[in-house]
Amino acid sequence: MGLRTKLGWRAASSAHPDERSKWAQAHFFCLVRSNLNTREKDIEELVTPAIEALGCELWGIEFMSQGRHSRLRVFIERAEGGVGIDDCERVSREVSDLLDVEDALAQSYTLEVSSPGMDRILFRPDHYSRNIGETVDVRLHFPFEGSKRFVGVLAGIEDDQVVVQVGEDEYVLPLENIQRARLVPRFD
183: closest CA among 169, 168, 162, 167? Predict the structure, then answer.
């Protein structure tokens, strides 16, 4: 019988002062991260209709600002046949034109369009739902039980919390604490 461990920051608010500090840091970081997500969400809302009109699905967006150089990664998926270089080229042209016309990014940026790949990042709750039973590599913003990384089987998603089974143990990890989760490809 495995152990099921649940991570929750709110429970720390009545704990020792050091634990309260961790709780405050966690909520401050999430606030900062949500500002980045706002830009990504705005871009996602802007480009989704154009990507869908080209017969593709928007899998996710990453925007990384590195000083004066920024990078916008757009991951696309197709229901049938997979993503080809022609799809990436068409989406790249369309998204680039749309971002320029709407002046969505004030600074210069590099646009990258690709398929999510076999080791795809899981961006949204429905990505987790679609991949239950697959092996995932989950990295956290803040450590849980001394670890910021969990590699195991995605056992489910419950109320904005991801359940990962590592060996005999299950860990319940809030989506807000997940920095990045990727599928781990199997080569059988």
Answer: 162
